[in-house]
Amino acid sequence: MVDTARIPEKTMKKFDTHAKSQASGLFTNKVRKQLLTQPHSRGHSKSMFWYRIRNQVRSALVDLEMFTALANRHNVDQVMTTETVGPIVKTLLYHTFPDPDRSRALIAELFIAEGFAYLRRNCDVGTSANEQAIDIALNVANYLATHLRENTEEGE
User: Fold this and answer.
1) Is residue 38 domain-resident?
2) Distances from the Cα of 136 to the Cαs of 116, 126, 132, 139, in angstroms?
3) 2-6, 69-73, 112-116, 136-140: which range is least confident on average?
């Protein structure tokens, strides 16, 4: 059995109540508890456990995309808030992995590029100086992400 001390106490506390709740979601209560206690420590059963989880999460992400594409604005606004999405973004980008990696650099760059594209499309940017500032910010994001990707590739 994997030592649950590897899971930060703060993380355990954050998800413990959710793991015990009867609210339906992506995972059953049993799977939530397995994720928190990580009982599948070796071999085939561990591989199969994580294989099933990865496939469920991939499917759930498509379901989330489908919801946001098809639901009306009120329903999307009830679910997609800074309070609900923020922790996911932070966990995705600042996970407890020891080193930065290419995939997170690409995701960070994607958030920045799509965020600026959204703002450009929906806001009055104002001046050409502001347009240039956005372009510079996008170039800086691209440079930083590329630099991080190159550095992590060298370390592999």
Assistant:
1) no
2) 11, 16, 6, 5
3) 2-6
CB 57 within 8 A of CB 26: yes
Taking residue 104's Cβ as centre, other Cβ atoms within 10 Å add up to 19
With respect to residue 114, please indicate whether it lies within any of the assigned structural domains: yes
Per-residue pLDDT reduced to its tens digit, 31-59: 888 888 865 556 668 888 889 999 999 99
Q: What is d(CA 24, CA 79) in angstroms, rounded to the nearest whole number?
A: 15
- Is residue 145 scored above 80 in pLDDT? yes
- What's the pTM? 0.74
Q: Which two tokens stand for residue 49?
A: 């456990």
Give the domain extent around 135: 82-156
